[in-house]
Each structure stands twice: as C-alpha cells, then as structure tokens.
C-alpha cells in the first residue's frame, strides 16, 4: 500500500490524546486527514493539577482557543515561575521564572555584566534584573511585557485544574472535526513492526495509516512493537511515588508555584482560584504514604482533604518513540517529574515535532529517525534541567538528598555545570526548553556561583558597564510596577468575558 496518510488513530486519554488530536486536525484537516480518538478511561483525579509554561499560550493561539475561556473553565491562575525552598538547608528560597531570551544582536548576555559587577562589589541579586522573577516576587503578571523592550521580556503560563483542562481540549477537538469512541479494554493487533488495528471492548475494529500512542506510561501500542525499550532515569531521580491532594484556596494568589524540599522528596503547592492543588514526590522506602500525607499540612501550613491519591512514577523515556507506523506522545514517550511545569509542554513539543515531520507516505516513514533524534534531545535537556535541582542540593544530612547529589550527572549536564562554574556561561543545545536565564537562575539559586566571567566583558568601559546595570534595574522595576497583580489580571479576564457575552 502506498500514498499519503489519510487516517490517524490516537489511542489514549486525557490531555496528551486531545492536544495531539486537536493539533493534527488543525494542521491537516484541510488536507483530508481524518483524526479519530480511541479514548481510554481517564487517569486524572479531581485533585490533579497541571502547571504549564508560557508556551501553552502559543498553543492556544495556534488552536484558536480563547484565553478567557481557559481561565474561566479551568480554575486557572497565571504562573510566572516556581519558588524553591529548603533545597539547600539554610540558604534562602529562590525563584526561577520563565524569562524570554533577548533578541540576538551581538551584545553579551546580561548575566555577564552582572557577574563582573558582583565581583566588583555589586550586592543586588540577579533576580532583580529578570522581568519574570521580579514580577513573580510581587505576584504580578507580565502581560505583553515584551512590547516595552524585547530585551526585557517574560512570559506566563498557568496553573490549571487538570480534569477541567483535559475536558476543555476534548470539547474543542470534537467541535473541530475529531471523531471519538470510548473503550474500557483494548486489543492491539500488530505484526511486530507496525500496528494493524485496535479492537475496542464492543468489538469495533479501528484501522489507520498512522497510530499515536497517548496512553500514558503503559504505552499500550508502542510496547507491542519490536525495538520498544524504556530507558529508566531512576538512578538520577530517586523518588518513586506521587501523591496528589487539595487544600483550601489562598487568600492572596501568588503568580508562582511553591516547591519545598522535605527529607524524603519535595512538596509542591499550585494555587488555583477555588483551591490549592498539592503534589508530593517522594521515596516510599523512606516514608509511608500515610505518614507523608500527615506531614503535608505542616509543610504547606494548611489542611488537606481526605481524598489524597497516590500513584507510582518511573522517570525515563522510550528509546524510540516512533516505531513503524506508531508514534508515542506525552508520557507514552517520556515520563518526567511534575517539576518545572513541563508536563503539557512535553506533549505540545512532541506534537509540534510530529506535525513538522508528518509522514509523506504510508508505506515508508523515514521521518521517524529525525523525530526520534529530536525527541531524545528535547527529553534529555528537560531531564538535565530537572536533575540540576537534585544534583546541586545542599541537604547533607538526608539519605534521599545525599543519594541524589552523589549520582553521576550525564555528560550533557556536567558540561553545563562546569562552564557555568568557571565563568557563568550556559552552553545551550538544540531543542532546549529553557533559556540561558532559566538555567543561570537555577544554578545560582542552588548555590553554584561562578568563579569568573567572560573576560571579553572587560572591553566594555567601566562607566558604560555601570550605566547598563543601573538602567536595567530601573527598567525592570518600572516595567513590573505597571503589571497587573494576579487578582487584577483575573478580574480583567472576567470583565472581558462578560463584555464579549453582552456583545
């Protein structure tokens, strides 16, 4: 059989399945590509939450999904970054925000100006020079910050009720021409090198030119093919459990997540409008699920509900996310900790790569090799960013953290740590999800202080250097002062939505 791909079957659930379906339908619906979802039972619980980086707003624009609808229907709160506490014992908490990379123009990274200034007596932390971080510290939202100065820009994502967001994307996909059927059980028919069909629990046989596996960590399709192999990252990430719970809403909503280290792992607080979602990631050999749940109110300083849910986690990735006519999306391809707001980002990034490498013909799919290489780079870059939190921790009396710190880092992370420790340079790879500023804030926050700086900065006259640093700090402060608070942002969204209804 030859010819173009005309039918796509997505077997899976929740956000991964519906983002993939909506994106492919949007991209190829006009080219007579039929998209069908074979929906498996949801794995999401009422207390689950998504934290999403700013690229989610680009996804919404691409799909034509109104932002105010997302905010209203998903209990959303804007998120500018994440605040880390207790990862280095007595060291103060630090924020890393989702700063945008400045446009290329030949100038040095501002980080180099700051490093030289610090060696010459500058006492102001780098956080005061980052738009996103400064905004997060004041719980403000950088709405259209880039319009003031492209070199001073930051974005914001959202905290989202996970079930509500998955349902919203599902309704959008169905409204735009995606078809679907539900099944509780699934039989997969394969010949070892390709998926031939799937059969639902009512006997419906679904065939397709291209299958997408969005089933989650079990990878129900990909695991049936020759060459499927899951590469565990457990040696770098010692936690094996995730607990999800809910607590009362916060009176004053921050524009950041709170990530607090505990002896056996970490606890994250993700503010929503009607509640505070709590996620704990921990090693069950060091603390029981019940004891962990009992400790959360102490760390979070708020009571939690009795409906906490525990699930296992094994970080890692499929060696080949695309095999034959089957492409793994989301956790079927890569499982990462719910840290640094990467869950939806990975789904979005994988789907974007698939859209750009969509197979030209049914009988031959050479695009798989390029896709697998790109996904590996992307996944390993995210892995390294998350692992840096563990590798640089300074909790020297806890077995969990000692084990994480003593693990040999991948060479790709070692390279970044080494160059940053020498002179504050972060060598970025292809398919990076985080900017140089993100890496630098994380490294500095965890206590990795460069011994020097890029000596080329010495060519800048001292007076010009001082003026540049002072101007940057003033410009950031003024820009942040004009930004809305979280409350003002949400009120503005509600007013805009009401105006649209009246119109």
Would you write up a description of this structure?
By secondary structure, the chain is α+β, with helices and mostly antiparallel strands. Among the domains are: 183 residues, FAD/NAD(P)-binding domain, CATH 3.50.50.60; 161 residues, no CATH class. It is 36% helix and 20% strand. The protein contains 14 helices and 22 strands. It has a 7-stranded mixed β-sheet with strand order 6-5-15-16-17-14-18. A 6-stranded mixed β-sheet has the order 8-2-1-12-21-20. The radius of gyration is 23 Å and the shape is globular.
Produce the secondary structure layout.
Layout: E1 7-12, H1 14-28, E2 34-39, E3 49-52, H2 55-63, H3 67-73, E4 77-79, E5 81-85, E6 94-97, H4 110-119, H5 131-137, E7 157-161, H6 162-175, E8 179-182, E9 186-190, E10 195-200, E11 205-206, E12 210-214, E13 230-232, E14 241-247, E15 256-262, E16 265-271, E17 276-282, H7 289-300, E18 309-312, E19 316-318, E20 322-323, E21 326-328, E22 334-335, H8 343-356, H9 367-391, H10 399-406, H11 411-423, H12 436-445, H13 462-481, H14 486-502
Parallel strand pairs: 1-2, 1-12, 2-8, 5-15, 12-21
Antiparallel strand pairs: 3-7, 4-7, 5-6, 9-10, 10-11, 13-19, 14-17, 14-18, 15-16, 16-17, 19-22, 20-21
Keyphrases for this structure?
503 residues, alpha+beta, FAD/NAD(P)-binding domain, seven-stranded mixed beta sheet, six-stranded mixed beta sheet, 14 helices, globular
């Amino acid at each position: 059989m030859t010819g173009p791909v005309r039918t796509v079957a997505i077997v899976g659930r929740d956000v991964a399945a519906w983002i993939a379906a909506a994106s492919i339908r949007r991209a190829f619906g006009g080219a007579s590509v039929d998209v069908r979802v074979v929906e498996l039972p949801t794995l999401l619980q009422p207390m689950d939450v998504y934290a999403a980086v700013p690229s989610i707003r680009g996804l919404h624009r691409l799909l034509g999904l109104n932002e105010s609808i997302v905010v209203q229907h998903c209990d959303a709160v804007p998120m500018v970054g994440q605040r880390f506490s207790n990862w280095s014992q007595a060291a103060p908490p630090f924020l890393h925000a989702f700063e945008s990379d400045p446009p290329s123009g030949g100038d040095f990274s501002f980080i180099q100006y700051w490093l030289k200034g610090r060696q010459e007596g500058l006492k102001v932390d780098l956080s005061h020079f980052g738009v996103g971080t400064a905004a997060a510290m004041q719980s403000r939202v950088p709405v259209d910050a880039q319009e003031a100065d492209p070199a001073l820009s930051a974005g914001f994502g959202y905290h989202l009720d996970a079930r509500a967001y998955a349902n919203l994307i599902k309704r959008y996909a169905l409204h735009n021409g995606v078809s679907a059927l539900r099944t509780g059980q699934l039989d997969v028919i394969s010949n070892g090198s390709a998926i031939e069909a799937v059969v639902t629990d009512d006997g419906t046989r679904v065939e397709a030119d291209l299958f997408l596996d969005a089933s989650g960590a079990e990878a129900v399709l990909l695991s049936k093919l020759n060459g499927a192999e899951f590469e565990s990252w457990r040696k770098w990430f010692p936690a094996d459990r995730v607990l999800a719970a809910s607590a009362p809403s916060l009176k004053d909503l921050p524009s950041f997540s709170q990530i607090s280290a505990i002896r056996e792992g970490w606890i994250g607080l993700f503010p929503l409008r009607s509640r505070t979602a709590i996620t704990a990631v921990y090693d069950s050999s060091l603390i029981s699920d019940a004891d962990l749940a009992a400790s959360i109110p102490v760390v979070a300083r708020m009571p939690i509900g009795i409906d906490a849910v525990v699930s296992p986690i094994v970080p890692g990735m499929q060696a080949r996310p695309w095999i034959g006519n089957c492409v793994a999306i989301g956790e079927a391809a890569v499982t990462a900790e719910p840290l640094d707001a990467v869950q939806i980002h990975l789904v979005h990034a994988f789907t974007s790569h698939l859209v750009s490498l969509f197979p030209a013909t049914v009988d031959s799919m050479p695009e798989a090799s390029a896709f697998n290489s790109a996904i590996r780079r992307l996944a390993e870059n995210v892995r390294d960013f998350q692992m840096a939190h563990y590798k640089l921790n300074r909790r020297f009396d806890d077995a969990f953290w000692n084990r994480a710190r003593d693990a040999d880092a991948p060479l790709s992370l070692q390279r970044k740590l080494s160059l940053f420790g020498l002179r504050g340079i972060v060598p970025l790879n292809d398919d990076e999800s985080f900017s140089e500023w993100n890496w630098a804030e994380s490294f500095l926050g965890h206590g990795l202080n460069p011994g020097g700086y890029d000596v080329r900065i010495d060519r800048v006259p001292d007076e010009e250097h001082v003026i540049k640093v002072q101007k940057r700090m003033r410009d950031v402060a003024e820009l942040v002062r004009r930004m809305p608070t979280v409350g003002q942002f949400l009120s503005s969204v509600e007013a805009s939505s009401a105006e649209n209804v009246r119109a």
